[in-house]
Design goal:
Helices cover 48% and strands 12% of the residues. By secondary structure, the protein is an alpha/beta fold. Bound molecules: zinc ion (ZN). Zinc ion binds next to loops.
Length: 297
């Protein structure tokens, strides 16, 4: 009898250990910033645990990586990042994590970039890295994510493909909706000034024109002369609106100075980060579409 009890207990322990192992067997993924982390989570569902290196509100162009991030990379199975020179800090971080088995996936691979804006630090690797403002490009990211997760975890191929397919359908809806929103803006008003050079793909895909940036390089503040040039651009525009981006510090003051000079208004567009108000890529893009229409119609 006693022997039988012990057998039961050991069997339960084995089963519990088995369950514990299952829980830990989720793919450990790391993404460079919040938008990419969301895309990985949309495809990976409960089979993938994804961490974003840069938290909500952080700026992917600049990041002082710490040993904590090196540790999460060292423990990860796979790292997803945008590439094309956006995350200038990532190679150093991966080196400092000292892991050789990590799978590194550049999501912008295979896309043809728009040119970077001159004097912008973005263009040093030959193009504008902000692909995700064109929904078609995000579909490309999602397909790569699905393929990579399947290669790591072929037993769940059907699961990843089903989730990717459902999300691609959501993206098609978003894309059509954006086209519709922009079509309601009078053609002569489809121009805007953004904080930094992050909306070229949005403009290119949906028929808008970016007529200026508050900063040409997120590393430096604009001069009084730069602001004067922007003020004269705004003065000629039907809608004196300026868009700021929540991830960059100092910009609200600059935008307000500029807006007060021309009697204009300041709106927020999400560019390089999610936030608690827009916690997913879809939320961010729906917010941006609504805001563009409200500001420019
Ligand atoms: Zn940017």
């Amino acid at each position: 009898m006693r022997k039988c009890q012990w057998l039961m207990i050991s069997l339960m322990l084995v089963l519990l250990a088995g369950c514990g192992y299952q829980a830990q067997a989720k793919i450990q993924a790391v993404a460079s910033f919040s938008i990419i982390a969301d895309l990985v989570a949309q495809v990976g569902g409960d089979k993938v645990e994804v961490k974003s290196i840069i938290p909500f509100g952080g700026d992917p162009h600049h990041w002082e990586a710490t040993s904590r991030e090196a540790i999460s990379i060292a423990k990860a199975d796979i790292l997803f990042y945008n590439g094309l020179g956006l995350e200038t800090w990532i190679e150093k971080l991966v080196d400092s994590a000292g892991t050789s088995s990590l799978r590194k996936v550049v999501l912008s691979q295979g896309l043809i970039p728009l040119p970077g804006v001159s004097h912008d630090h973005h263009d040093h690797q030959g193009g504008d890295p902000h692909f995700w403002h064109d929904v078609d490009h995000v579909k490309h990211y999602v397909k790569i994510i699905s393929r990579e997760l399947t290669e790591l975890d072929p037993g769940n191929q059907e699961y990843y493909e089903r989730r990717a397919q459902a999300y691609l359908e959501e993206l098609t809806k978003l894309d059509n909706w954006l086209v519709e929103q922009i079509s309601m803006i009078p053609v002569e008003n489809r121009k805007f000034i953004s904080y930094h050079a992050s909306f070229n793909y949005l403009a290119h895909r949906y028929g808008l024109e970016v007529i200026g940036h508050i900063v040409t390089n997120p590393d430096s503040e604009p001069s009084a002369r730069d602001l004067g040039v922007l003020a004269s651009v705004l003065n000629k525009h039907n809608r004196k609106v300026i868009f700021i981006e929540p991830q960059a510090a100092n910009q609200l003051r600059l935008a307000e100075v500029l807006a007060s000079e021309v009697g204009g208004k300041v709106y927020t567009l999400y560019s390089d980060s999610l936030s608690s108000e827009a916690p997913t890529y879809l939320d961010m893009m729906y917010h941006n579409g609504k805001t563009l229409l409200e500001a420019l119609k």
